[in-house]
């Protein structure tokens, strides 16, 4: 009587675990393979709790996605854009220049969140948590909409007021002669024109 030999083949497929933080705008990607063969990716190796990460991609991996219409917090921006009747590309450009999509951003002057609102402005707009994307974007859109109304729809003056305060725009009757504010307006307008040309 012949014995049957049963052969069991076990196919082991590599397992990939992707760990990516919220702010993907301009981060290197690191790779780590643990003892079980699991491949881990992250853009913050210091926060991953392991040593031994090596650089996998040294590029802005989100840039190609942005070029075809994707960017972080797009849904929140679109909702605020629709509610306050502000061009999505403009709101997107302001957010990018203000915080580079980092919802935990804090400026040296105390502005916080994605839209970099000052404490007094946040209180006026009813923002309870400046690091909450929805609250920050909605408040920033409302604030920008108000500035555009104040300056008769002049986007450049509204942006200057967003950056340097409406009082300074009124005082000078134009974009204030502050190099930082002038650079800010130029950066936002450049991105606004670029994003306006993307069919999403």
Please give a structural write-up.
The protein has 200 residues and is α+β, with helices and mostly antiparallel strands. Helices cover 44% and strands 8% of the residues. It has helices at residues 63-67, 74-84, 88-99, 119-125, 133-150, 155-164, 166-172, 179-196, and strands spanning 16-18, 29-33, 39-42, 54-57. The chain has a 4-stranded mixed beta sheet, with no helix packed on it. The longest helix is centred in the C-terminal third of the chain and has 18 residues, at 133-150. The chain starts with 15 loop residues before the first strand and ends with a helix. Mean pLDDT is 80; it is low at 6-26 and 58-67.
Secondary structure layout plus pairing:
Blueprint: E1 16-18, E2 29-33, E3 39-42, E4 54-57, H1 63-67, H2 74-84, H3 88-99, H4 119-125, H5 133-150, H6 155-164, H7 166-172, H8 179-196
Parallel strand pairs: 1-3
Antiparallel strand pairs: 2-3, 2-4
Helix pairs in contact: 2-5, 3-8, 5-6, 6-7, 6-8
Mean of all residue-level pLDDT scores? 80
Q: What would you call the shape?
A: elongated
Order of adjacent strands in the largest pleated sheet:
1-3-2-4
Count of DSSP strands: 4
β content, as a range? 5-15%
Reported for the largest beta sheet, the result is: 4 strands, mixed
Any idea what the radius of gyration is?
A: 23 Å
What is this entry, summarized?
With 200 residues, the protein is α+β, with helices and mostly antiparallel strands.
What attributes does this structure have?
8 helices; 200 residues; 8% strand; single chain; alpha+beta; four-stranded mixed sheet; elongated
């Amino acid at each position: 009587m012949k014995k049957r030999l049963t052969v069991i083949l076990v196919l082991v497929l590599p397992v990939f675990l992707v760990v990516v933080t919220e702010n993907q705008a301009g981060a290197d990607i690191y790779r780590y393979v643990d003892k079980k063969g699991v491949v881990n990716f992250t853009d913050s190796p210091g926060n991953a709790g392991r040593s031994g990460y090596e650089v996998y991609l040294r590029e802005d991996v989100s840039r190609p996605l942005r070029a075809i219409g994707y960017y972080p917090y797009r849904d929140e921006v679109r909702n605020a854009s629709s509610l306050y009747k502000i061009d999505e590309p403009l709101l997107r450009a302001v957010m990018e220049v203000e915080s580079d999509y980092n919802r935990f951003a804090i400026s040296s002057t105390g502005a916080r969140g994605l839209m970099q609102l000052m404490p007094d402005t946040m209180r006026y707009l009813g923002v309870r948590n400046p690091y909450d994307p929805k609250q920050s974007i909605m408040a920033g859109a409302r604030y920008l909409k108000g500035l555009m109304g104040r300056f008769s729809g002049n986007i450049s003056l509204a942006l200057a007021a967003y950056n340097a305060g409406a009082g300074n725009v009124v005082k000078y009757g134009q974009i204030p002669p502050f190099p930082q504010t002038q650079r800010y307006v130029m950066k936002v307008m450049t991105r606004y024109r670029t994003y306006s040309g993307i069919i999403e």
